[in-house]
Design a protein that fits this description.
With 265 residues, the protein is α+β, with helices and mostly antiparallel strands. It folds into two domains: 79 residues, Immunoglobulin-like; 144 residues, no CATH class. The chain is 31% helix and 17% strand. The chain is built from six helices and seven strands; from the N terminus they run βββββββαααααα. A hairpin with a 6-residue loop joins β1 and β2. The chain starts with 13 loop residues before the first strand and ends in a 14-residue tail after the last helix.
């Protein structure tokens, strides 16, 4: 004969949460004083999503990424009768998090010879190279928004876009144009990530920059194919996956091209 479960000690649940430092849509929650058979957490409406956690320990850590900016009510519920539900209101702002680009084994986008520099991107977006005092610096630095380090990550995204069409190993004669094309994509992602309201109202150079890229990428691919033995052979490096920044912006209405036109590897 099994013994009855010990009665849980008195005390309500405690729910706390904090946004991730680099991705405001990703929240880390902690529920303490968990007793009873199970814990269930609800994000927003119960019908939206819930996470049942059987036989939790005294403390439970949960992560949840919200689909869009907004205000949400997070509810934690325990089966123990002497613990009341506890709720937490969280405000989710627009995230500028850019997932890193995956590259095929053996290719380091930081050392590929046609990698653009921060200055290459700044040459397309000189008006964005201002410090907190409004001084135009002519390039991205730790004092600009975005910073030079953040632009470097977007440069890798731009290289992935080019490599999705032509691969990573390119003839030396094509390096300058590959560098320019990758800079155009990086500049577009700067605009979408850091000036979405201007992109939406067509007060940004985004549309012109994207048009330049889409006009040039097909002739570039033809040129690369003519210089490669056997032309361009499809391989793992040509598989398309959505760019995190531009895909996110398209999803939430910032007027970027169709997702199937935007790819990173």
């Amino acid at each position: 004969m099994s013994e009855p479960e010990p009665k849980a000690p008195p005390g309500p649940l405690v729910l706390s949460g904090v946004a991730d430092a680099v991705d405001s849509q990703l929240w880390h929650f902690t529920v303490t004083n968990v007793q009873g058979n199970y814990l269930t957490c609800y994000w927003g409406d119960v019908s939206e999503s819930s996470v049942p956690i059987p036989t939790p320990p005294m403390d439970v850590q949960l992560d949840h990424r919200f689909a869009a900016a907004g205000t949400y009510t997070v509810t934690a519920h325990s089966a123990a009768g002497n613990q009341n539900d506890v709720t937490l209101t969280v405000t989710v702002t627009t995230s500028t998090y850019v997932p890193p680009v995956e590259t095929p084994p053996g290719f380091d986008p930081l050392t590929v010879p046609w990698r653009p520099s921060v200055d290459d991107v700044a040459a397309l977006l000189r008006a964005r190279t201002k410090d907190a005092s409004g001084n135009e610096l002519g390039t991205f630095t730790s004092e600009t928004r975005p910073t030079d380090a953040e632009v470097e990550q977007l440069i890798t995204n731009g290289m992935g876009k080019v490599a999705s069409r032509v691969g990573w190993e390119l003839p030396e004669q094509t390096w300058e144009e590959a560098r320019h094309l990758a800079s155009l994509v990086a500049a577009c992602e700067v605009e979408v990530s850091y000036r979405p309201e201007e992109v939406r109202t067509e007060r940004s150079a985004y549309q012109q920059l994207w048009a330049m890229f889409t006009y040039d990428i097909d002739p570039f691919a033809e040129m690369v194919g003519s210089l490669q033995p056997g032309g361009l052979a499809p391989g793992p490096e040509t598989l398309k996956t959505p760019s995190g920044t531009v895909n996110w912006a398209y999803t939430y209405g910032f007027g970027v091209p169709p997702v199937d036109e935007i790819a990173n590897v």
